[in-house]
Specification:
Elements lengths: L2 H4 L2 H11 L2 E6 L2 E6 L2 H10 L11 H6 L13 H14 L5 H20 L5 E2 H18 L7 H16 L18 H25 L11 H6 L19 H4 L6 H15 L1 H16 L1 H15 L14 H13 L5 E5 L4 E3 L2 E3 L4 E5 H5 L44 H18 E4 L26 E6 L4 H18 L5 H27 L12
Parallel strand pairs: 2-7
Antiparallel strand pairs: 1-2, 3-9, 4-7, 5-6, 8-9
The structure holds protoporphyrin IX containing FE.
C-alpha cells in the first residue's frame, strides 16, 4: 500500500486492525495519531475534549478560509465559541424556517424529475447532489440569488480540488516559496473568484435589506445583522436585535461571512448527498429491508399521499435503516482534530500540535462493538438500548461528539429523512439493464467526504395511486349508483353521494396539502 492509500479511512482502519485503537505516525515534521475504537474516541472527544478541540489546517485550508475566519477550521477558543453560537442559534436553527422550506421544495422538485423519467434510468447520485446543492445555496443566499448558481458551483469545485490536493509544501515548509506545483497561484485565483461572487451578493443584500421580523431571511441576511461597518450607528439592524450575541458586541467582517458560507456549502452539501445516495444503494442491495421500509411507509402514510414531516416520527424501521447507513458510511469518515497541549491518551504521550484523526468509519465497523460489522442489518437498531448517533454512544459517531460535533445535524437529518422517505414511498426502484442487487458496486472514494465510487443509477416507477384517477373512478361510481341502484330511495342516494363527495374532498385536500408541502392541518384547506 502506498502512503496516500494508507492515509484514507480504509487504509487507516487496516493499520488499526494490526496495531490497535491508537496508532502513532510521523508525517514529515508532524506527529499524527489515529483513533479507531470507541474507548479511545471517548477519551479524546469526551474525557479530554478541551485539549483535543483544535483543528489542523493545510496551506490551502488556511488560505481559502481567510486565515481560519470561519467556524469549522477556527481553533477552539472565544472566537470559535461566538461563531458556533451564531451558527447554532441563528443560521442552522430550526427557527430559520427558510432552510426547512428549501428542503421541502427541493425534494418536491426531485420527485417531479423522477416522475418525468419514470421507466427510464436516472443518475440518482447526480440528482441528489443537485438537490443538496440547491438546498444549501438557497439557505445561504435566498431565492434572490439563484441566477449565479452555476458560477458558484465551479468555484466550489475548484475549492474542493485545492482542499484535497497533495501539497508538498505542507510537509516541507520552505518549498512554499518556490511553489513547484503551481498551487499558490491557483489558491489566489480561487479566492479571488469567491470574493467577487460573494461581495456581489452581500452588496445586493445590503442594498435591499429585509425587515428585521421577516420570516424568509437567508443566512447572508442573518449575518449582515452583525456586520462590522466601523460605524457605531450603522444602518444594519444590529441595534434592534436583542440577543446574547448582540449584547456581547459580536461583530463579523466580510471575510467571516464568506468563510462561514463556505463552511455551510462544504458541510451541508456532499455530506447529505452522500448519506442519501448510500441509503438508497444499501436498501436496493438489500431487497428484504427495502420491502419492510416500503411496507411501513404504506401502513403509516397510506398509498394516496406523499410523506409529511409529521409521519417521520412514526417510521421506526425506516429510522433503523438510516442509522445503519450512517454507521457503515459516515459521510465524513475521518474527524480531524489537533491537540492544544501535551497530554496522555491510553497511557501514551501525545505532544502539543499533534494531528488527531478519529476514524469514524473504522469505529462504526469495529468488530468488538458490532456483530457482523460489515453487513447492512438495520434490524440491529430495533434492540432495546441500541446506540444512537447523538454523540454519547462512541461506537456510532457520524456527527462527531462533544464541542466540535456537527452543528448542522438537525437540518442534515431532516433533508436525509425526507428525501429518502419520499423517494421510497413515491416510487419503486429497480437497477438498470437487469442488474442484480448483489452486483451493485459498493466502493467509496476518499476526499473531504466518502461518496460512492460509482454513482447510483436506478429506474423509478410511480407507486402511489393518482388522486385524479381516484376522482375519475368516483365519478364513474356516482353515475353507476344513480343509474343502477334504482331501488334506492332519494335519501339513500343522497347519503351515498355525500359519502363519495367527502372522499373526493379528502383527496383534494391531500393534494392541496402536497402542493403546499407544509405541515398544514385539514381545517386550513377545505373546499368550502
Ligand atoms: C448527514 C449530514 C451531516 C453529517 C453526517 C455531518 C457530519 C459532521 C462531522 C462528522 C463533523 C465534524 C465533527 C468533528 O470534527 O468532531 C461536522 C462538522 C460540521 N458540520 Fe456537519 N454533517 C452533516 C450536515 C451538516 C449540515 C447540513 C451543515 C450546515 C448546514 C453542517 C455544518 C457543519 C459545520 C459548520 C461543522 C464544523 C463544526 C465545528 O468545527 O465546530 N453539517 N459535521
Amino acid at each position: 500500500m502506498n502512503i496516500m492509500d494508507q492515509m484514507t479511512h480504509r487504509g487507516l482502519a487496516k493499520l488499526a486492525r494490526e496495531f490497535g485503537g491508537l496508532v502513532h505516525l510521523r508525517l514529515g515534521m508532524r506527529h499524527a495519531f489515529v483513533v479507531s475504537t470507541p474507548d479511545v474516541a471517548r477519551e479524546v472527544l469526551q474525557v479530554q475534549d478541551n485539549l483535543f478541540s483544535n483543528r489542523p489546517a493545510t496551506i490551502a485550508i488556511q488560505y481559502l478560509t481567510y486565515d481560519r475566519a470561519d467556524m469549522a477550521f477556527a481553533h477552539y477558543g472565544p472566537f470559535w465559541r461566538q461563531m458556533r453560537k451564531l451558527c447554532v442559534m441563528k443560521l442552522f436553527s430550526r427557527k430559520r424556517a427558510e432552510s426547512w422550506a428549501a428542503v421541502r421544495e427541493e425534494v418536491e422538485l426531485l420527485l417531479s424529475t423522477a416522475h418525468a423519467s419514470r421507466g427510464t434510468p436516472i443518475d440518482l447520485g447526480e440528482a441528489v447532489f443537485n438537490l443538496t446543492m440547491n438546498i444549501t445555496y438557497r439557505a445561504a443566499f435566498g431565492v434572490r440569488s439563484e441566477h449565479g448558481q452555476q458560477e458558484f458551483i465551479s468555484i466550489l469545485q475548484e475549492f474542493s480540488k485545492l482542499f484535497g490536493a497533495f501539497n508538498l509544501a505542507d510537509f516541507v515548509p520552505w518549498l512554499r516559496w518556490f511553489d513547484p506545483q503551481g498551487i499558490n497561484k491557483r489558491l489566489v485565483e480561487a479566492r479571488g473568484s469567491l470574493d467577487r461572487f460573494i461581495d456581489r451578493i452581500i452588496d445586493e443584500h445590503v442594498t435591499n435589506p429585509k425587515p428585521v421580523d421577516s420570516l424568509d431571511t437567508d443566512m447572508v441576511d442573518d449575518m449582515l445583522t452583525y456586520l462590522d461597518t466601523g460605524d457605531k450607528n450603522t444602518n444594519n439592524q444590529s441595534a434592534q436585535v436583542d440577543d446574547e450575541l448582540q449584547s456581547s458586541s459580536f461583530k463579523l467582517t466580510r471575510d467571516n461571512i464568506k468563510a462561514i458560507i463556505m463552511d455551510v456549502m462544504f458541510g451541508g452539501t456532499e455530506t447529505v448527498a452522500s448519506a442519501i445516495e448510500w441509503a438508497m444503494a444499501e436498501l436496493m442491495k438489500s431487497p428484504e429491508d427495502l420491502k419492510r421500509v416500503q411496507q411501513e411507509l404504506a401502513e403509516v402514510v397510506g398509498m394516496d399521499r406523499k410523506v409529511h414531516e409529521s409521519d417521520l416520527d412514526k417510521l421506526p424501521f425506516f429510522m433503523c435503516a438510516m442509522k445503519e447507513t450512517l454507521r457503515l458510511h459516515p459521510p465524513i469518515p475521518l474527524l480531524l482534530h489537533e491537540t492544544a497541549e501535551d497530554c496522555e491518551v491510553s497511557g501514551y504521550h501525545v505532544p502539543a500540535r499533534s494531528r488527531v484523526m478519529i476514524n469514524s468509519y473504522a469505529i462504526g465497523r469495529d468488530p468488538k462493538a458490532w456483530e457482523e460489522a460489515d453487513a447492512f442489518k438495520p434490524a440491529r437498531f430495533e434492540r432495546a438500548g441500541a446506540p444512537d448517533f447523538k454523540g454519547s454512544h462512541f461506537e456510532l459517531i457520524p456527527f462527531g461528539s462533544g464541542r466540535r460535533s456537527c452543528p448542522g445535524m438537525q437540518l442534515g437529518l431532516y433533508a436525509l429523512y425526507l428525501t429518502v422517505a419520499q423517494l421510497l414511498h413515491c416510487f419503486e426502484w429497480e437497477l438498470p439493464n437487469g442488474m442484480r442487487p448483489s452486483e451493485l458496486d459498493m466502493n467509496d472514494v476518499f476526499g473531504l467526504t466518502a461518496p460512492r465510487a460509482v454513482r447510483l443509477v436506478a429506474v423509478p416507477t410511480p407507486r402511489l395511486s393518482c388522486p385524479c384517477f381516484r376522482v375519475l373512478s368516483l365519478c364513474f361510481c356516482f353515475l353507476y349508483v344513480n343509474k343502477s341502484l334504482r331501488g334506492l330511495t332519494i335519501m339513500d342516494k343522497e347519503l351515498l353521494c355525500f359519502g363519495m363527495c367527502w372522499l373526493i374532498k379528502v383527496d383534494c385536500v391531500m393534494s392541496l396539502k402536497d402542493m403546499k408541502q407544509g405541515e398544514t392541518t385539514l381545517d386550513v384547506y377545505t373546499l368550502d
